[in-house]
Amino acid sequence: MLKTERQQMILKIVEQNGKAETNALVKKFNVTEDTIRKDFNSLSNKGLVKRTHGGVMKIQGVLDYDYRLTQDVASKKKIAKVICDYLIQFKTIFIDSGSTNQIIAEELLNKYHGTIITNSPVIALSLSRNKQIKIEIIGGSLNPRTKVILGTKSINEISQLNLECTLLGVSSIDFKMGITYPNNDEATLKTTLIKQSKNIVVAISKEKLETFSTFSAGQLSDVNALYTDETNKKLLKKYKQKIARVISC
Question: Does the domain made of 66-248 have the CATH classification 3.30.565.10?
Fold first, then answer.
């Protein structure tokens, strides 16, 4: 079977099942694991699938922010309660756009008395209820679906900042591949945030661990603290090799 034919069959499997795993395809096509991994990498680099630990999964369309805000609310609130005790030590925090980060911002509302910089109008409006929080919003182009401000203007503004702490919004994080995103514009903004920040803090659901997308923004070593609802001690121990503070909430 030709490589192109095999990869087309892999795409059909992913479309039907939502995912494809290495071990199953090795048996199905009677090829080596290395061959399947190369197929996965080729399809991922073309933006056709999302790479995961042990396989690939179907890339979902960009979900509306309002919808994402209703998903896994209990887990996000659990993370928010724990992470706030860590964040309140910083006088200035950049809160990156994201549904988890918005819930964290709401938890910070009555606990924090400092400066918040954000690229999320939604987060800014939420925090504005506390008059003791100084809020600054990054300029740029607003994506109406994701509620995030992106573009050259926002990157230029962030490049002029020296950030004490950034609560980074993350699409995917993997032990080997680091921090990745499905969109190059988003990845470029995140890269700039990482570069300009003394401390990078990540709050992420367990579903996003051991997954990666096409565009890289940083490595695990760039992260100072990781908060997650993952409870697998073996997996968390692996991440602790590269991240100083890994907290299971």
Answer: no
Q: How far apart are CA 37 and CA 78, in angstroms?
A: 36
Same fold for the domain at 3-58 and the one at 66-248? Answer: no
Q: What's the CA gap between 118 and 97, in Å, rounded?
A: 7
| pLDDT one-digit tens code per residue, 97-155 | 999 999 999 999 989 999 999 999 999 999 999 999 999 999 999 988 788 999 999 99
Tokens for 212, please give them: 């990666």
Strands 115-118 and 92-95: parallel
Percent of the chain clearing pLDDT 90 (strictly above): 68
- Determine the Cα–Cα distance for residues 239 and 249; give it in Å rounded to an integer: 15
Question: Amino acid identity of 237?
Answer: K
| φ, ψ of residue 146 in degrees (nearest 5) | -95, -10
pLDDT at 183: 83
User: Whole-number mean pLDDT of the chain?
Assistant: 91
Provide CATH code, domain 3-58.
1.10.10.10
Contact between 200 and 168 (Cβ < 8 Å): yes
What is d(CA 195, CA 110) in angstroms, rounded to the nearest whole number? 30
- The amino acid at residue 80 is A
Beta-carbon contacts of residue 14 (< 8 Å; ≥ 6 apart): 20, 49, 56, 57, 58
